[in-house]
Amino acid sequence: MAPLSARGRGLSLSLSLSLSLSLSLSLSLSLWAPRAARALDGDHALRLKLEGGYDCVTYRPLALGLAGAAPTQEGADRARVHGGYALAEASYALSASWVLAAGYWEGRYEEGRARRKAVAGARYQLDVFHYVPWLGAQLSYDVGRAGWARALPPPAAGGASPGAVDVAGARLQWGLELGVDRRLSPAHAVSLTFRWLNAAETPPSGVAVGLSWTYHWALLDPFAP
To answer: Which of 64, 100, 115, 151 sits most deeply, having the most CB atoms within 10 A of its CB?
Structure first.
């Protein structure tokens, strides 16, 4: 009977250790899960973002054709202007992954050019605790421009000047966004964002890099008591 008793004590010890490990793991997960969920806002979260950065805009400068011909963009080289921008944006988290956003963009560029845009888009973000990478699609519409229209000289053969022509491109544009948020606290975050407007073109009509600060309001906290 002694060997059986020793075997029984060994089995009892193994079961006790397994039970202890299971309880410890369950307790750890229960304590960790709310903090992980709080790394993002979850459902029903409102955010306010203030962003500033560098913006490079490309466009097609109009070129005069043959004497007496109208200006043409065919075969014209792309030109670039550099500047800075500011963005004020409000967004709403539909879930821990999907976010809708809308905002106002103000850009200032070389040679006194300016651009004001209304922007809206959707983003998909990953919950990686303090660091939250995300990918988004954006639509923008120019609500104001300044300095982009150029008065072309009259054709060499004489005749009236074609006058000022807007060379800034289409007012409605689409683009892609790629960014990463760094959560400083449940209410504050900083972000690094890359944007490509009309990304299918070569080169794209706009490339922007910005830094931002975001304030988060949790309208509904599923972990609140």
So the answer is: 115
pLDDT at residue 33 is higher than 50: no
CA distance 55 to 60: 17
Tell which residue, 31, 36, 39, has the closest CA to residue 216: 39
Q: In this model, does residue 87 exceed pLDDT 70?
A: yes
8 A C-beta contact, residue 173 and residue 200: no
Whether the predicted pLDDT of 84 surpasses 80: yes
Residue 47 main-chain phi, psi, to 5 deg: -130, 145
Question: What are the pLDDT digits (tens) for 127-152?
Answer: 767 889 999 999 999 898 887 765 44
Smallest CA-to-CA distance from 189 within 215, 166, 210, 167 is with: 215
Which residues share a beta bridge with 166?
149
Would you say the pTM of this structure is higher than 0.70?
no
Taking the C-alpha atoms of residue 119 and residue 101, their distance in angstroms, rounded to an integer, is 8
The helix/strand/coil state of 203 is coil
Q: Positive or negative CA dihedral for 129, 40, 127, 179?
A: negative
Listed in sequence order, the residues at least 6 apart from 182 whose beta carbon sits closer than 8 Å to its beta carbon are 130, 131, 132, 189, 190, 191
In the chain, the N- to C-terminal Cα span, in Å, equals 55
- The CA distance from 76 to 171, in Å, is 20
Tokens of 77: 């080289």
